[in-house]
Amino acid sequence: MAGRRATSGGRWLANLLVLSLLGTGLLLWAGSHKAGGGLAGPTCGERAGAAASMWRFARWWGTLTAWALQGGTVRPAAAAGGDVLIVVDIDKRQLTLYRDGRKLRTFPIAAGRPGEPSPVGEWRVRDVGLWPGGPFGARWFGLNVPWGSYGIHGTNNPGSIGTYASLGCIRMFNEHVVTLDHLVAVGTPVKIIGTTEVYYRMPLYKEGDVGQDVVLLQLALRSLGFDPGVADGSYGKSTTRAVRDAELWYGLWPDGRADATVQELAGFRVP
To answer: How far is CA 162 from CA 9, 89, 178, in A?
Structure first.
């Protein structure tokens, strides 16, 4: 009886594993098609916002499955050490990897196409995924951009590298993106610099606002000597404090809200 129960339990676990793998495959297939465009639409870019959490789960689950299938020995990004920084220059279409302040290597990339700009700002790697080919190529390093789903990833279109072709994500050759495995971890800082497109500027910015325009406001405040904290596109307490300091300096009422006057003084808005 005990032997039959053990056998039954083993079969149940095997069936659960098979179902999990099938589910993973379905999620990854759907995610890759969604990322690649078509009827389902993209997951890279600002328009992806609502679906971003679902596909972050798909990437996490795919990575977990790959780790389990390989005996629990593969841990991409787990060996990261030292002070690692990624700097992406979208004007030059280059990604440069630094460690302990020393340049290690520069890679060519594809950046966001017109109308789908890559997010300029100061980010962190939020999640890491192993992808079996498809539009994301060999790897995915998701970024904590608050207004969409963006990341650094491989590609199945290597001819696009060196151009503006993506939906805002940073594309690399597959043979290049896999070299980041043992240097880049969740939490690694990523700085994206260069010319960006901002289609609007709000007449008033306040705590809780997010967007590429908020990043540019934060950078403008920093250039004047008022520290907004990280230029991460989130108008939080540090940005409020920086705006309040600027208002006090210029003799304005210090409410911490960036109205048109504050924006003009910061050079963020042309009078």
So the answer is: 53, 11, 18
Q: Which pTM does this prediction carry?
A: 0.75
Which structural domain, as residue segments, surrounds residue 218?
A: 204-265
Domain membership of residue 100 (yes or no) is yes
Q: Which residues contact 79 (CB under 8 A, 6 or more apart)?
A: 181, 182, 183
Which residues participate in catalysis according to the annotation?
A: 153, 169
Q: Report how many domains make up the chain.
A: 2
| Residue 246, domain CATH | 1.10.101.10
Which of 160, 181, 197 delimits the end of a domain?
Answer: 197
Measuring CA to CA, which residue among 131, 157, 163, 150 is closest to residue 232?
150
* Tens of each residue's pLDDT in the chain, 271 residues: 555 554 555 556 545 554 665 555 555 444 443 343 333 333 676 655 444 455 555 555 554 544 444 444 334 333 444 699 999 999 999 999 999 999 999 999 999 999 999 999 999 999 998 875 688 899 999 999 999 999 999 999 999 999 999 999 999 999 999 999 889 999 999 999 999 877 678 999 999 999 999 999 999 999 999 999 999 999 999 999 999 999 999 999 999 999 999 999 998 876 6
Which residues on neighbouring strands pair with residue 210, listed in sequence order?
234
Residue 50, both tokens: 């609502």
* Burial annotation 231-249 (CB, 10 A radius, 16+ → b, else e): bbbbbbebbbbbbbbbbee
